[in-house]
Automatic annotation (TrEMBL):
Pfam family, one: PNPOx_N
The name this protein goes by in its record: Pyridoxamine 5'-phosphate oxidase family protein
Residues covered by the Pyridoxamine 5'-phosphate oxidase N-terminal domain: 41-162
Domain of life: Bacteria
Phylogenetic classification of the source organism: Bacteria, Pseudomonadati, Pseudomonadota, Alphaproteobacteria, Hyphomicrobiales
Amino acid sequence: MQDDESSLRRRFRDVITSEEQLRSVLGAPTDRAVAKVVRVIDEHARRFIAHAPFVFVASAGADGMLDISPKGDPAGFVTVLDERTLAIPDRPGNRRLDTFRNVLSNPNVGLIFLIPGVTYTLRMAGRALIVRDAELREAMAVNGKLPEHILVIEISHVLSHCPKCMVRSGLWQPEAWPDTSNLPSFAEMLVAHGKLAETVEQMQTIIDTGNRDRLY
């Protein structure tokens, strides 16, 4: 890893190596930017989570390799258990278990909640564990299907994130969306990256069947 890092550094002439160097260009954060961090899931955060159908979960393995996994369900699928704890159901997927395997060795996670059309986000950080408590699984069932596991997170940091990135990207403005006519399909990527024997058409059929039969 050090050799890779040294090789990367050699490609550039002006590499930042300290916070002091960053601050010399960007300055200090405003008081309100620092003060907006709270340590509990307050009423404002609860209301945001209740409307959010989507959350990104960041985790890190024992070797430091980072992963960010998207989670989505009907709005409010993440349950606030109390002012310091929330629960995220695990739905059927590809069984890679990237987040779960990371949490088993490093419980620290980060979250970003998104709501379609809303230009600010909610960020959280905390420590997670994986549970199978029957009562909790039953409470988070959809269409009669119980999640096999629940990611429970003890929250330590909660903060809202300003809308500038959403405004710049035009994320919720269809007229600003890029032309995707030349974008590879998910099936194309799977076949290419996995060097699979299936054709793109066969893989698309597998994907469509999974979306129809294995959502819950």
